[in-house]
């Protein structure tokens, strides 16, 4: 059985580019717990708070419950659930899972495969991260689930058939924005080398976002992370959106985040394509959290 391929083919809602990272987040959490303790069993009532935090921070803005993936991941053949009465999930309701003493873990066949081939865990984690989240969030997401995936070089038919990133995008986007953060104007360099500047996908690459200039922004490291976490967005007239959900009382938070609300984007230079409306719309519906603040 090819566990990497099975991981790649988790049943998720994908229509219209809608984000549904519920199963991948639970699976990553389970892999992290397995890495820490191969014999661990995850009782729903004990891990519910952890899973809710993961969904709130890395999931879409609409409210959801970890009970859904806890029950439905069973159908993908990588996860099993038992209750006080025996094997089998009692359903996807929060109260039902709590009352039944539901507990989940990786299926025995997968645990055996991970025991025989420890590097398999890193390959599975990499697939979950690459297919569901932008690179800017990978390290902190691994830390959040207690996972330490080993860097891997994929090979075989699965890797060969997967869409490949265009490595030229970074240079094209940074050039279009003249090596300045489109939100704050930061343009730091060491000698001739830019530092702290990154090319951000507006519509995430994992959700069909193309490696094109009109799907990119040149952003400083701080604003790239906040953009991918849904704190910042792009509104009509290519003006910066700041979520009302963001709270910051320090002068730095007010200056570097809250004061951006309503500002026009800096760039791109004349002749370069600005961010396409379809990509702005996807980010607004799938990543941006809450309601925008009034213009500063």
TrEMBL record:
The keyword Nuclease applies. The keyword Hydrolase applies. Residues 168-225 form the HNH nuclease domain. It comes from Streptomyces klenkii. GO terms for molecular function: endonuclease activity. NCBIfam families: PT-DNA_restrict. This is Restriction endonuclease. CDD domains: HNHc. It comes from the Bacteria. The lineage of its organism: Bacteria, Bacillati, Actinomycetota, Actinomycetes, Kitasatosporales. Keywords: Endonuclease, Hydrolase, Nuclease.
